[in-house]
């Protein structure tokens, strides 16, 4: 019974990391969102090489449109997290879905993107943290109110659809 309580606690802590990222992005706090990945390697659309959180922050600051209220006027929803915990190795993995909603003065409420996050975690100093993330975009809608994308980045998004 002790083990299942620990697993539930670990699964909750890991799920909260997934949710916290969304909350930070939707609040326009890109620094806090990226800091969650300070110990992680990231597979990003801009490179075949794994990147760090500073590269992620630079990309998000370049492409995410922040409105006068300080937010991107989005709601990122993470759902169906399938969390697998290896207590012996103090690691975990997660596959989850994301859906991004947006509404602005000029854009009615709509889904603008969805896809999957493939995440890895490690347990260090009494807490779970990200150790790897790959985001896969499955479907894109009207993203012009959310992201500034040049042809290279659009091509990367297109190649990311798996």
Characterize the biggest β-sheet: 5 strands, mixed
- Kindly state the number of beta strands: 5
Distance between the termini: 39 Å
Please tell me the total number of domains.
1
Instruction: Please give the CATH architecture.
Output: Roll
Helix content range: 25-40%
Overall geometry: globular
Tally of individual helices: 4
Strand order of the largest sheet: 1-5-4-3-2
Structural class: alpha+beta
CATH C-level name: Alpha Beta
What does this structure look like?
A five-stranded mixed β-sheet has the order 1-5-4-3-2, covered by helices on one side. The N and C termini lie far apart (39 Å). It has one domain: Nuclear Transport Factor 2, Chain: A. With 162 residues, the protein is of the alpha+beta class.
List keywords for this structure.
162 residues, alpha+beta, Nuclear Transport Factor 2, Chain: A, 4 helices, 5 strands, 31% helix, 35% strand
Task: Draw up the topology in text.
Blueprint: H1 2-26, H2 30-35, E1 41-43, H3 53-63, E2 74-86, E3 91-102, E4 110-124, E5 127-140, H4 151-159
Parallel strand pairs: 1-5
Antiparallel strand pairs: 2-3, 3-4, 4-5
